[in-house]
User: Fold these one by one.
Assistant:
Number 1:
Amino acid sequence: MRSLFGFNKAEQAPGSPNISEKSTTDTPVADTSSEPAIPPVLECPGINGPLQEIKALSDDEQKVLEQIKSEIPELIKDLPPIDENVKAFVDESVPLDIEGWLTDECIARYIRARKGVYEDTKKALRKTIEWRAATRPHALLPDAVEVENRTGKMYMNGFDKFSRPVIYMYNHRQNTKDADNQIRWVVYTLELCIRHMCPGVEKVTLAIDATNWGFSSSVSIGTAKKFLDILSNHYPERLGRAVVFMPPKLFVGFYSLVSPFIDPVTKAKVAFVNPKEPPTEQTDGGSNSPWIAIEECFDRNCLEKDCYGDWQFQYNHQVYWKSIEEEFAQAKAALLAKQ
């Protein structure tokens, strides 16, 4: 499968590892600098600035929340067993803990996503509860998805100015073709972000390097649909901002054509950044323009240099994956301790 967001997997962005010979191999990326490898930042460092405002529920929506809470025993009964097709990819000893997942904040996200309609919200929640029981996204084994990030194509690392976890996407580092496993790694990363959200934070930020975007590497329609279905159905209201760095003119032109058909709420979350030019020089779109300055979303000192920041982080697979394995063991232990 070709890379998500249509980036050319054979091209290389400035400052990134040389992946021209790794686009279809499993060779891990190692930091070749003489300096010690910098470990990733997965833990919430604390709140040091404003948080993204979360829309409060209306009185009617609050009534929906209370009604659904009263029906939780019904919502979580008769759940399906683990799907036989996913058993090889999950740790079955990790507790399901649906009650712990089904918080007031979780229910509120589904209410907002379903426009406050009780029946739609209840059906959506039940659908996700059944999906989590059958696929165990929180119990995906690091070993099952390790191959997907050997080249550092997508991973959580650090937080933005609003304390939202940041997922970096360097899709020109694409190294695999198994669409199902690629989606597992996306799900694993989302679950990782959710586990480490700071108090009061519910959304993630995507930092997408579009330097090498091209139509020739567009994702297949079937895979894109499955990917988007999982996000919209099982992780509603989780996207805070999608920041596209250095989008080529072709990318911007394509976005301009499709943007009128994008839901206004979603469209407001998409932003473009060109670190070489102030936003006002790139468009006269005013307040409706997708162009922003880096500082609107990121502290440059906490933004990777490969995404035009000042943080001298360079992906090292051995170092990053050691952190992932340790984090998984800790998360598993925490769930077992609740039993």
Note: Strands lie at 154-159, 165-169, 204-209, 239-245, 270-273.
Number 2:
Amino acid sequence: MQLKNLVLLAAASSVNAAATLRFSCSQLVVERLDPLVNPGENPSPHLHQVVGGNAFNVSMDPAVHDLPTTATCTSCTPTEDLSNYWTAVLFFKARNGTLHRVNTFGNELGFTGANGGQTVYYLTSGKATAFKPGFRMTVGDPNIRTAEELNKRYKYMDFTCLASSMTRGGQTTYFPKQPCAAGIMVSIRFPTCWDGVNVDSPDHQSHVAYPNGNACPATHPVTIPQVFYETYWDTRPFNNKAEWPADGSQPFVWSFGDQTGYGIHGDYVFGWKGDALQRALDANCNSDLFANRINCPTLQTQTLEQANKCTKPKTVTENLDGWLTELPGGMPIM
């Protein structure tokens, strides 16, 4: 199972004129802002790690905040992608109850030079329509605490306990229960069907849907690319089980207080310039799955070193480093 999933993905990308666009997005900022779920709130309730364009801010109303024209740089390697992608942040809870933030690190399949962040994919199995200006969506629910509810409402969100950088397979929907020699990879995949009208919805999810088999439902007839995040969390400094809870339970917790992992979720705000994403989809661009090669002549790109230079100053002043007595924002652990 080490490489089976990647090999299957590579094979699938060659049929039905499919695209497999894969690239690195370095860390832009880590702070308590969430312009989708908590627009205008500074700070938001829980901490996020954010990548993409530096126009990310506390309130991103598309009517007044156009990402492609507002951002001046991107931490992603395609320079025409000024989108923002974000997730919650992982913490280690030690036996004595103190907490330490877990850093992200560059995907070792081609992106070791990245300053953390995540790997982003746009996947299709045939013709797909790129997102429209102002489009945004979320997937997952931070309030979920059971496998039953997660599996009922969402698909394709999981954890991989990495034995090495090449590990694939053995995914779980909950936090790994044993030390992971090469860290933990968190995968978040968004739905691939759109209602064709709304670029957002009150819950940021109802305007998109999962397909029924290989076809989109009548309520959401437009096929969109699957946005897919892989985030590598460097749990290696916390593999000493003598520091884990005395009852033998796993020690990791999301920044919103979830110790199960089932509250996994992600946020996306589209910000590609002009028709750049549609051009890439129409060209059936297929990136290298093991190296830093986008293989898409229609797109302009930058190096990992250049992407690392795009960062954003924090707007929320609080201590996020070292050992903490509580999660940022005082989020309860449950």
Note: Residues 4-12 form the longest helix (9 residues).
